[in-house]
Every structure is written in C-alpha cells, then in structure tokens.
Amino acid sequence: MAARIKKGDRVVVIAGRDKGRAGEVIEMRPAEGRALVRGVNMVKRHQRQSTTQEGGIVSKEAPVHLSNIALADPKDGKPTRVGFKFVGTGDERKKVRFAKRSGVEIDG
C-alpha cells in the first residue's frame, strides 16, 4: 500500500494531548504504524552523562500513532485526507498524492 504520509510532510495532530498542533515529520516508522513529528508529543528523558553528551533531563519527541495525525492541506493548513491519482499519459504516467480537501497536488 502506498504511503499517505511521508518524511518531510507537514502534519496536524487530530487527537490526543497535542490536538491542533502542527509539525514536520522527522521520521516514519511503518512497522510500528507511528511517526516522529518535530515539536509534538514532547517527553522528558533522564540522560546519563557520556563523553559526547552531558547528563540531565532532556526533552525529545516521542512517536505519534498515524491514526492521530493528518496531512496539512497545502492551501490553508487544515487537516485533510490524502488521495492518489495518475498524472500524464503513456510512459510519463506518474502516481501523485493530492489533498482531498482542496484538490491540490502534494508531490508532483
């Protein structure tokens, strides 16, 4: 199945503690069905000091389940569903994602 959300996409959280917040997808974890979103679902971790990093309490992003995020519409930034369509004819035919809310192509 084609990926509806990819690394680098701008997404909006639609459920949970950070509902309404937006951010960029840093990392996709398709096996877990989760994604890391910059600035969303921040948690505190106690880090031991090492030669490269200092110790203390560090804030970092935790993965968000894909059912709780939606792609941000390129036109107005509101959550939208993702559709697929084919653009071009013959050998130049290409499958692209588009926002169902506005019809704007996401990657083309």
Structure in words:
The structure is a single chain. With 108 residues, the chain is mainly β. It has a single domain (10-99), classed as Roll (SH3 type barrels). It is built from no helices and ten strands. The strands form three sheets. Strands 6-3-2-1-7-8 form a six-stranded antiparallel beta sheet, with no helix packed on it. It has a two-stranded antiparallel sheet with strand order 4-5. Strand 4 (42-47) and strand 5 form a beta hairpin. The mean pLDDT is 93.
Topology of helices and strands:
Blueprint: E1 10-13, E2 22-29, E3 34-37, E4 42-47, E5 56-61, E6 64-65, E7 69-72, E8 79-80, E9 82-87, E10 94-99
Antiparallel strand pairs: 1-2, 1-7, 2-3, 3-6, 4-5, 7-8, 9-10
The biggest beta sheet is recorded as: 6 strands, antiparallel
Q: Quote the CATH topology.
A: SH3 type barrels
How much of the sequence lies in strands comes to 35-45%
Strand arrangement across the biggest beta sheet = 6-3-2-1-7-8
Secondary-structure-derived class: mainly beta
First-last Cα distance: 19 Å
List its traits.
elongated, mainly beta, 108 residues, 10 strands, six-stranded antiparallel β-sheet, SH3 type barrels
Quick recap of the structure?
The protein is an all-beta fold. It has strands spanning 10-13, 22-29, 34-37, 42-47, 56-61, 64-65, 69-72, 79-80, 82-87, 94-99.
